[in-house]
Design brief:
This protein has 14 helices and 14 strands. By secondary structure, the chain is an alpha/beta fold. The radius of gyration is 22 Å and the shape is globular. The structure holds uridine-5'-diphosphate.
Length: 427
């Protein structure tokens, strides 16, 4: 018997170009890869996303048993997540109409990010199906910074604007109403349980995965090959790498300041954004100039994920100076390629980066602290060799096959619970 999943990714398509805009990054990868893994295991997955381009086909098969279905809701143009709430109900209605015309009903509703969950919740109720959701980011948690504990009480929060107020209120309702909230770390689970008064059975820790076949350390001379291919000859000058969306939450300014303070004259590669005309790239270039490191900082723009292993192999360390990360996929990808990670000890990063084992954690997020720790790493070849050796083994537990098994197991538990509840309600 086949199992069908209705997967919701309202605000961004799982096949969008990654890292170029602020709206396509880890969540897109997660939905694409999880769906691929579920399809590989025999499930049928329909991913519903909003139309942001009039030319996108209505239905595309993106991997075995996985379809991407593009629904018109609001104007067929890119819109920021903050402008999408008014189109959620229309999106829901269109998915309902589409599902009504299908031969087989769905067995599970799985949503990503609060907008998708807001669209999926009424459908799960109408179809009498379990609803699994994953927030990826939670408004009340993402403002959290080191030294600034998040307000964990259930007391009303003074919203910054109307859209934020709607999001905060919706996230609370969704967390309580969904059958299960998937969190990527135990730490996030604890925070959500306290924030919304959830029981522990209401959350399930399932980390994000990594494609261990695509992200590999390569052979002994692959580092030199990768450097040459990227035009990074220059013998032994260390290379630091940043990969991600050019969003203020990623702390790129702090990273530039750290490089300027370092004793080692390292080069820095900032992968992400659009080097042709992206104002954020221009701003960061100007910042590098003002800090006197323009010669050493390069901004190649976003690169396709298939080319990233070459960047990870060419570098000496990946630096993640984020203010907040719910998980931090780039850290896992770098480690899978044998690259140590220097990261702020925020959000989910400490669950991936172990201080002194596969990388270094910066507990007090400042340019001085980052500069000091990166200098220490680059100056200690024994430490560097140890971290490199332990990098890949430390992330083998994030293999997508294992993660897929855990999601299938959750679906199974929720389906059995739903059946039991249906039987009980007959008496
Ligand atoms: N990414 C990419 N090309 C880029 C920049 C980023 O393919 O130029 C991918 C990267 O491989 C990772 C994802 O985007 O899988 C970013 O995920 P992460 O969890 O690090 O950050 P998020 O976007 O979720 O904040």
């Amino acid at each position: 018997m086949c199992f069908r999943v209705a997967m919701f990714s309202l605000h961004t398509s799982p096949i969008a170009q990654l890292g170029r805009t602020r709206d396509a990054g880890g969540m897109n990868v997660y939905i694409r890869e999880l769906s691929r893994e579920l399809g590989r295991g025999g499930m049928y997955v329909d991913i519903f996303t909003r139309r942001s381009d009039p030319h996108t086909p209505f239905i595309q098969t993106i991997s075995d048993r996985v379809r991407l279905i593009t629904m018109t809701a609001g104007p067929a143009e890119p819109l920021p997540p903050g402008a999408l709430y008014p189109y959620v109900a229309e999106f829901s209605r269109r998915v309902a109409r589409f599902a009504g015309g299908q031969e087989h009903p769905y067995d599970m509703v799985h949503s990503h990010y609060w907008l998708s969950a807001a669209a999926a919740a009424p459908l799960a109720r109408a179809w009498d199906l379990p609803h699994v959701t994953m927030f990826h980011t939670v408004e009340r948690l993402k403002g959290q910074q080191q030294g600034q504990p998040v307000e964990m009480s259930a007391a009303p929060v003074a919203p910054r604007d109307h859209a934020t107020a709607i999001r905060i209120e919706s996230e609370g309702r969704i967390a309580v109403g969904a059958n299960c909230v998937i969190v990527s770390t135990e730490h996030e689970g604890e925070q959500l349980r306290r924030l919304y008064g959830l029981s522990s059975s209401h959350t399930r820790v399932i980390p994000c995965g990594v494609d261990l076949r695509a992200f590999t350390p390569g052979g002994a001379d692959d580092r030199a090959v990768a450097r040459r291919a990227l035009g990074l000859d220059g013998a032994d000058t260390p290379i630091l790498l940043f990969v991600g969306r050019l969003d203020p939450i990623k702390g790129i300014d702090l990273l530039l300041e750290s490089v300027a303070l370092m004793k080692t004259p390292a080069r820095l590669l900032v992968v992400g954004g659009d080097p042709a005309g992206d104002p954020e790239v221009e701003r960061l270039r100007a910042r590098a100039e003002a800090l006197g490191i323009a010669e050493r900082a390069r901004f190649p723009g976003a690169v396709p994920q298939s080319e990233l292993p070459r960047y990870y192999r060419a570098a000496d360390a990946l630096v993640v100076a984020s203010r907040y990360e719910s998980f931090g996929l780039v850290a896992v990808e770098a480690l899978a390629c044998g690259l140590p990670v220097v990261a702020s000890a925020v959000g989910g990063l400490p669950s991936v980066v172990r201080d002194g084992e596969n990388g270094l954690l910066v507990r007090w997020r400042s340019a001085e602290a980052f500069a000091g720790r990166i200098d220490a790493l680059l100056g200690d070849s024994a430490l560097m060799a140890r971290l490199r050796a332990q990098a890949r083994p430390s992330v083998e537990r994030f293999d997508w096959r294992r993660i897929g098994d855990r999601v299938r197991d959750l679906y199974q538990t929720l389906s059995v619970e739903a059946e039991r509840a249906a039987v009980c309600s007959c008496f």
